[in-house]
Amino acid sequence: MVLAALLAGCSGGTADGEGAKGPEGLTAAEACGGFASAAPVAAALEAVVGGEHVEDDRSRPDRAIDRLRDDAAAPWADSYRPQPVRYCGLRAVDGGRKGLRIEVRAAGKGPYLGPELARSVTSYATGREAFASSGSGRLYFSCRLDAPALPLVVEAVVRGPADVPQTDLRHRTRLITLANAAARQVSAKLGCEGDGLATGVPKTVPAPSSAQSPPRTG
């Protein structure tokens, strides 16, 4: 019994298994700078990836922020379309789903949701515009920087597992919750003013008027 206790102590646990080290990886509070540390966001992350612990998958948050600052400072040509940068990439370490990635980029003024797409997505009240399907969520928010003192629209896109049924509306809310949390972190790092981003879980709303189909005539 003494030997068993000594061996358990050396392994970081106890003889009956209590206190044993958990699976390797990051918790929601640790992943991608802690953007998912709030309870409802952590729950959304765990549900999307299918596990409590995740590992990083080529996240480049500093590069993404630098790119947004550069795009805010530089004049755009009519043909210029900023490329997205992977802000956060995560996947489960304990046999969960494939994972998710969140990309950000500077975007135009919109509108972003057309009548055709509006029929297949759910819209949410956060930022300028936000909507999600079963496989991805898109969120746009306004940002005014101190230096340079220019307005900027940021697009945050979250892409999750591709095998989720279209009828799973709760999954759509999870995706936009993650996009919103990442957008709030990006906004704080940029020093944005007036981003209009929600706290916690964004609420569903009707599609914006710009996405409504025009009335039939004749």
Distance between the termini: 90 Å
Query: Measured on Cα atoms, how large is the radius of gyration?
Result: 21 Å
Strand content: 15-25%
User: Total number of β-strand segments?
Assistant: 8
In helices, the fraction of residues equals 25-40%
Please name the defining characteristics of this protein.
eight-stranded antiparallel β-sheet; alpha+beta; 218 residues; globular
Walk me through the topology.
Elements: H1 2-10, H2 39-49, E1 54-56, H3 61-73, E2 85-92, E3 100-107, H4 115-118, E4 122-124, E5 129-132, E6 136-144, E7 151-159, H5 169-190, E8 204-205
Antiparallel strand pairs: 1-2, 2-3, 3-7, 4-5, 4-8, 5-6, 6-7
Helix pairs in contact: 2-5
What does this structure look like?
The protein is α+β, with helices and mostly antiparallel strands and 218 residues long. Helices cover 27% and strands 21% of the residues. The protein has helices spanning 2-10, 39-49, 61-73, 115-118, 169-190; strands at residues 54-56, 85-92, 100-107, 122-124, 129-132, 136-144, 151-159, 204-205. A hairpin with a 3-residue loop joins strand 5 and strand 6 (136-144). Helix 2 (39-49) packs across helix 5.
